[in-house]
């Protein structure tokens, strides 16, 4: 029996919005360098970004039946995480992108393929995919919705928070969002301080206190 879960626990909307103000790279570093999806999953437009709750769906290769089911049940602010067996076929295009926009869905992230990218870019709906390919799909096979997924070299649970931008996509556990915000804020503040020191003429050796480390490793500078 294939199980579709329509009700999931989500993080507080205000916390999701606040987390979304930080870059994916900052969040990744701040939470201990964890949660980054495989770099092959990229935005179809570098200006695209999003932050929302993971709504997971497993599709069979070259089949988008369950993606259409997921779009029908996803809530505003959700991010569709679509596992399709790393197949390139274009399971998502401008027609379904319009359906997502109408339903308030925040973004789509897939290890499969998409097409109609020009129209999707003009629509402004964030899409992150591994492939762009004109081949279409069928609607035949069932698959689970809102079950944990092994996706992009990470395990994603329904309701996890997902942030994406031009540098990549990072996953944050739902129960760790508040902590990730504080850690990300502290990292941004620290990096702003580093930049000011560089502007004053200090070197990376001084700003990052690297001299002792380099000496311990045996570096000789003549």
From TrEMBL:
The lineage of its organism: Bacteria, Bacillati, Actinomycetota, Actinomycetes, Mycobacteriales. One of its GO terms (molecular function) is 4-hydroxy-4-methyl-2-oxoglutarate aldolase activity. NCBIfam families: PRK09262.1. Mg(2+) binds at residue 116. Catalyzes the aldol cleavage of 4-hydroxy-4-methyl-2-oxoglutarate (HMG) into 2 molecules of pyruvate. Also contains a secondary oxaloacetate (OAA) decarboxylase activity due to the common pyruvate enolate transition state formed following C-C bond cleavage in the retro-aldol and decarboxylation reactions. Belongs to the class II aldolase/RraA-like family. This is Putative 4-hydroxy-4-methyl-2-oxoglutarate aldolase. SUPFAM superfamilies: RraA-like (SSF89562). Substrate binds at residues 93-96, 115. Keywords: Magnesium, Metal-binding, Methyltransferase, Transferase. It comes from Rhodococcus erythropolis (Arthrobacter picolinophilus). GO terms for biological process: methylation. Its cofactor is a divalent metal cation; Mg(2+). Its EC number is 4.1.1.112, 4.1.3.17. It catalyses: 4-hydroxy-4-methyl-2-oxoglutarate = 2 pyruvate; oxaloacetate + H(+) = pyruvate + CO2. InterPro entries: RraA/RraA-like, RraA/RraA-like_sf. Pfam families: RraA-like. Homotrimer.
């Amino acid at each position: 029996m294939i199980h579709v879960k329509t009700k999931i626990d989500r993080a507080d909307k205000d916390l999701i919005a606040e987390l979304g103000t930080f870059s994916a790279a900052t969040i990744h570093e701040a939470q201990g360098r964890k949660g980054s999806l495989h770099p092959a999953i990229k935005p179809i437009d570098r200006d695209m970004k999003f932050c929302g709750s993971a709504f997971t769906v497993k599709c069979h290769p070259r089949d988008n039946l369950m993606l259409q089911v997921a779009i029908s049940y996803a809530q505003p602010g959700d991010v569709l995480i679509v596992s399709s067996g790393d197949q390139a076929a274009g399971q998502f295009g401008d027609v379904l992108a319009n359906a997502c926009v109408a339903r308030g869905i925040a973004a789509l992230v897939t290890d499969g393929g998409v097409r109609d990218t020009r129209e999707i870019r003009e629509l402004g709906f964030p899409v992150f995919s591994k492939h762009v390919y004109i081949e279409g799909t069928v609607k035949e096979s069932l698959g689970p919705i809102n079950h944990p997924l092994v996706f992009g070299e990470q395990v994603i649970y329904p309701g996890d928070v997902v942030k994406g931008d031009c540098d990549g996509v990072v996953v944050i556990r739902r129960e760790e969002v508040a902590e990730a915000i504080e850690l990300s804020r502290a990292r941004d503040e620290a990096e702003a301080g580093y930049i000011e020191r560089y502007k004053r003429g200090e070197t990376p050796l001084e700003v990052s206190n690297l001299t002792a480390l380099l000496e311990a490793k045996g570096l000789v500078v003549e």
